[in-house]
Amino acid sequence: MTTGTPPQPSGAPSAPRLVVLHGGELPPGRERIDGRPGLGAVDYATADTLGDALPGARVLLVWDLFTEALTAAWPKADALEWVHAATTGVDNLMFPGLVESGTAVTNSRGVFDRPIAETVLGFVISFAKGLHITRDLQRERTWKWRETEPVAGRHALVIGTGGIGRAIARMLSAAGMTVEGAGRTPRTGDPDFGTVVEASLAVPGAGLREALPRADYVVAAAPLTPATRELIGAEALGLMRPTARLINVGRGPTVVEEDLVRALRSGDIAGAALDVFAAEPLPPDSPLWSMPQVIVSPHMSGDVEGWKDELVRLFLDELDRYLAGEPLRNVVDKRRGYPAGH
């Protein structure tokens, strides 16, 4: 069964043991983890050694951000009560064994909200003011005067109404743009989006079918779920304005890249700024690299100075709650694949 409230320490005399799954780079300031009052032994494991480290462990910190190692090692998780992900997206952890178990999952919601929103605003300004074009012309030593587009008054559709989507909406609104959202539950009067439409193409005359043709910028900021996987393909791109730009700071598989390349080549949309991709790193032979109307960013939209320290701080706050028998904050609804309240 999936539980909305995480299990608390069992009351056994021994302090709970923690396993930190990493990919070679350890969390900064690890002494803050190792010496935590009330915590037992701390073992550091990689994907290759996770299976040996899991037996008897009650807490797992997934520091290897996109690993799927827990899926293979899951049969060894005989005492695991809580898994914490040092990411916002947890799609790599939503395998049936964990979803069906009583093990709680938390994520790092909140750490990346404003940095990603700042990146999205940067992409919008770059497109509107042609900053990437200006840079290219500078390299060619070409002086070419041209008019640019305004930012204020343009309309953005943000797909994903969680914390990141809301931070994006507030940032774009502050720049003078009008913003609407697309999420799981349509509504009006939302404090950040005003109107939220259903994030689906299956709603005749409503949902994305109605919203996409209104948008100058379509921002994908949703978690990867069965409902959002390949949501932005040929059909969605065909509904966008020829002058519109797509910005993806959510998950790569939300966009069908082959369809996006075709839409860009045919002029169905004007450009794209992509921070995430179906395969990462983006393969060298991808046509996206050389398309002049595309900005390729290497999955770094939320990575500002000090972000790893913030991830550790958030985990330690959750760990202290766990050790004290208090409810955890960022509990993920495992059936939906993201925290409750999105």
TrEMBL record:
Protein's recorded name: Phosphoglycerate dehydrogenase-like enzyme
Segments crossing the lipid bilayer: none
Molecular function GO terms recorded: NAD binding; oxidoreductase activity, acting on the CH-OH group of donors, NAD or NADP as acceptor
Pfam families in alphabetical order: 2-Hacid_dh (PF00389), 2-Hacid_dh_C (PF02826)
Coiled-coil stretches noted in the UniProt entry, renumbered to this chain: none
Residue ranges of every copy of the D-isomer specific 2-hydroxyacid dehydrogenase catalytic domain listed in the record: 46-332
InterPro entries linked to this entry: D-isomer_2_OHA_DH_cat_dom, D-isomer_DH_NAD-bd, NAD(P)-bd_dom_sf
Similarity section: Belongs to the D-isomer specific 2-hydroxyacid dehydrogenase family.
Gene3D superfamilies tied to this protein: NAD(P)-binding Rossmann-like Domain
Residue ranges occupied by any D-isomer specific 2-hydroxyacid dehydrogenase NAD-binding domain in the UniProt entry: 122-301
The entry's keywords: NAD, Oxidoreductase
